[in-house]
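*** Backbone structure tokens ***
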Amino acid sequence: MNVTIARMIGRRSALFGAALTPLLAGCDMGPSYQPDGPLPPPGFRAATPGTPVIWPDQAWWLGFDSPDLSGLIETARQHNLSIAAAMARVRQADAQLRIAGAPLLPTLSGSGGANWQHSGQNTSGSAARARSGATEAHSYNAGVSAAYELDFWGKNAAARDAALASARFSRFDQETVALTVVTNVASTWFTALSLSDRLGIADRNLADAEAVLGVIKGRFAAGTANELDVTQQETLVASQRAAIPNLRNQMEQQRIGLGILTGQAPEAITVRPGMLTSLALPPVAPGLPSEVLTRRPDVASAEATLMARNFDIKVARAAFFPNIQLTGSAGFQAAALNQLMSPGGLLMSLAAGLTAPIFDGGTLRGQLELAKGRYDEQLANYQTAVLQAFTDVDNALTAWRFTTEQEALQQSAVGQARRAAKIARAQMQAGTVDITTVLTTEATLLTNEDTLAQVRLARFQALLGLYKALGGGWQRPAEAHAALTPATLGGAVALPVGGNIR
């Protein structure tokens, strides 16, 4: 056992010696954070060449020209509980940064005391105490002590920088949560409006079917229609009436969902029918893929975490080297309180201590490998976030282009179906076509109108997806290239695009 320990101590000493060479050159705990992320493509695959770049505005929802939507989003931004939780995490990260930065400063503490001591027989009166040999002693002291750890290897600074990067992450994460909440509010709102439109279509078609049923019953009473004609139309009316409760149920579910997103009771939310068809569709078009990376808060948060893991590696490396602790104290001590601050009562001390790991059973090596593994994991997560950003934009652009085309074609189909249904009803009243033709044209019209409402919703959802994929108007502040220092906490810290360290 003694031989094994001696060998391990020898290896640790060799490690110290090998590490001293770079330390003497500047006490750096390893390579700095270097860019090592996926290269952005030259352009988006689904982008239309020659389209002018229109980045989203930070208040992009105003472009839909819906006061109701704007009010819901503003309410959600103030009262949504997910946003409130993200803001609380920001405060926690700031507190952790303050804690991590404390070791870079000396600690001061003050002390004071009074002591009274009596010995001998307890008798009354000073003369009696003198005869009995009793003694009394008083002492008073006051002082201040200080301690400071020399951050010679940069361990405390690296821990502070890791906490600073985590604080940056919490701010980017809050922006990501806010963007998700806002787009969810808009998506839920549009879905509720689409269901309201579909409900209106179903009501109109039901009214038309009931009117046709009245005509058929009149013809049946006159003997120009048979009972089968009446039954077929009654079946159509019954099926259209049965579809309405499901639409109302879905619309109510969306309204309840809006209550959760906005942090208020569902009873306070109203859905006006027919609004989706009247909303504006604000234009938006992305620029270069590389620009998207500076506009996505989720990419920025993944990169901030990557930087924090980089500093964790430096902390783990610095743990292999000795800690140097300076302590000092100064104060006064006297037997009488009125002599406490006299020069004769001055006491001072100064000490320096050094502690170094010799044998720890592999704990420090394990901690370093753990930090490296966490960095590699986060590097993969960051690269995934970058690729996901490019994918999201291309998917949204593709969906926007094809849903726009589909809506135009479906609008034409509705026009044709409406014209056919009108002709069929007129010919039925004239007695030139049977009820089967009318039923077919009515069913076709209902299907096409309902499909148009769903395609229109898909187009709105595609536009929302594009806004979200482009970061919703968020971008790193102008000072994003500032140095990584606590002074930049309120602004933005330089976050290179990806990185690797060994």
